[in-house]
Amino acid sequence: MSSTAIALILAAAVAHASWNLFSKQAAETGAAFFMWWFAVAAAIIYAPVVAGTAVLSHPHLRAANWLFLAGTGVLHTGYFLFLQFGYRHGDLSVAYPIGRGSGALLAAIAGIVLLGERPGIVAVIGIAAIIAGVVAIGLPGASSAPKPATIAFALTTGVFIACYTLWDKYAVAVLRTPPVFQGYAGIAMLSVTFAPVVLRDRRRLGQVWRDFSRQVLGAATLAPLAYMLILIALSFTAVSVVAPAREISVLFGILLGRRMLGEGSTARRLAAGAAIVTGIIIIAVG
User: Fold this and answer.
1) Which pTM was predicted?
2) In contact, 255 and 91? CB cutoff 8 Å
3) Where are the domains of the chain?
4) How far is CA 278 from CA 3, 48, 133, 184, 230, in A?
């Protein structure tokens, strides 16, 4: 993997773990309300970036490009919704690593099976390490086990992660859709999808903004940035490498869960996170 791809992935990992902390902090507000504010704010913040890209690059979008732009919106809506459900039922340091790790694993396998990517035996060992880490996070701890609902929502989130990763890989690498456009489409669709639901309860919508505006703006700034960086890396790097490697963010997520939210079982979760990161490193260098 090139040094450029590594730099993009590391920057994305820090941004991704940080915005997930903001999402967890606001999880009790109701998924649709926080997600709608986040999507609207992100759409406004990144509109100048999209407009500037359109003016400078003059992209020629065909029917297939538009289809994949619409499709990523649907997949990202499911991802954000189940992510928020997972955070509402369990710890950041459980839901985040399971969702990210399982998503990376599924995306890597699909890249091999569907896209014809052929990692060597070293990369296979790395994938096995990721599986071990994800399983370890889901095991009961000394005092309590993760809630089944948390694990179920996190694994569903992982399925959506794998689906949109493969979908968007094809869009930016084969169809040559600009990564900024592909990353923005999911946010725009999210704001439209949840509007009919949240606008029926204006009082609660206003309360969510008053209580969590900082989290909304933080997530709106960092989430699109993190994914656009990954899309740039995907445009010239195999998905079976990028998808697992980006999950180095799980360590940041576990540490933030402990430091900012006071979550327990840190040693076990860090050990599991270290196994995931070890697998990522093996895949990257192998």
Assistant:
1) 0.75
2) no
3) 3-285
4) 18, 38, 9, 31, 20
